[in-house]
Design a protein that fits this description.
The protein is mostly helical. Helix content is 77%, strand content 0%. Residues 1-15 form the signal peptide.
């Protein structure tokens, strides 16, 4: 259940950034950092 809350918060932040053109930046490094955080969370919840 906590993972659902985190996922919703993550997608909300992602939507806000994409709405402001943040994701269209050349690097998009923050997006990848978020993706890595998400994968780390999933890995932790599986163990």
């Amino acid at each position: 259940m906590a993972l659902l809350v985190l996922w919703r918060r993550w997608t909300l932040c992602l939507g806000r950034w994409s709405g402001s053109g943040y994701l269209s930046s050349p690097t998009g490094s923050s997006y990848h950092e978020l993706a890595n955080d998400y994968h780390r969370l999933r890995h932790a919840s599986n163990s």
